[in-house]
Amino acid sequence: MPNYNKLFTPQDAAVVFIDHQPQMTFGVANIERSLLINNVTLFAKVAKEFGAPAVITSVETLGFSGYVWPQLLDVFPGQAVIERTSMNSWDDAGFREAIKATGRRNIILTGLWTEVCVTWPAIEMIAAGYNIYVVEDCCGATSPAAQEAALSRMVQPGATRLTTIGALLEFQRDWRNKEHYNALMSLLKQHAGAYGSGVEYAYTMVHKAPQSAIEPQIVPKKTHEEPHLAGVS
């Protein structure tokens, strides 16, 4: 059974992006799809910032699924995408070799669809001795019931559920660590919704840092005009 008694780090974890492709996206019904794309993009950018190795794989690109999302490809320009025919990534020798090449035993999975293309490799990778983490809001299923059933099935053999914010903050871990701090805050401001807005507020209103906007808002200074007196010419 995999050992989950300590937190993962950028030095001992790898991230995996499975089948983030248009045809698979069309079938997602457990999460708002623009939110899904945003979450995956944020997590990919943070993983890259912290230097965690990434594996990207796709299934039947030309025959059915379409190309991997440009938002994800642009995070890792030039990186090879492992093309498969099997719905189970772990069946593919190229995928297994890519995972092995990371040198990591903690594998953080994201992908479409959760109930098939994430669940199946997760189960077999656990059996092969990997510690598997599933970022559930970076995964899409064909219904809420399918998402919950898939997560339950993965947890039974030993997978760990987590979310985008929890996963990326586990990379940061301690706010005293400043190497990636500013870059992380910048990514949160761009992609982390209400949390990102709170970061922007703290930066600008509490710490008096410059606004993140390319063209910052300029608030006109108030003028104190003499009150108008009725009947006075």
By CATH reckoning, the class of the largest domain would read: Alpha Beta
Please report which band the strand proportion falls in: under 5%, 5-15%, 15-25%, 25-35%, 35-45% or over 45%.
Answer: 15-25%
Distance between the termini: 90 Å
CATH topological fold name of the largest domain: Rossmann fold
Extended strand count: 6
Structural class call reads: alpha/beta
CATH homologous superfamily designation of the largest domain: Isochorismatase-like
CATH architectural grouping of the largest domain = 3-Layer(aba) Sandwich
Main sheet summary: 6 strands, parallel
Order of helices and strands: EHHEHHEHEHEHEHHH
Helix content: 40-55%
Number of helices: 10
| Mean pLDDT score | 94
User: Numbering strands along the chain, what is their spatial order in the largest sheet?
Assistant: 3-2-1-4-5-6
Q: How many structural domains does the protein architecture include?
A: 2
Poorly predicted regions: none
Radius of gyration over C-alpha positions, nearest whole angstrom: 22 Å
**Which descriptor suits the 3D outline?**
globular
Question: Which keywords apply here?
Answer:
233 residues; Rossmann fold; six-stranded parallel β-sheet; 44% helix; alpha/beta
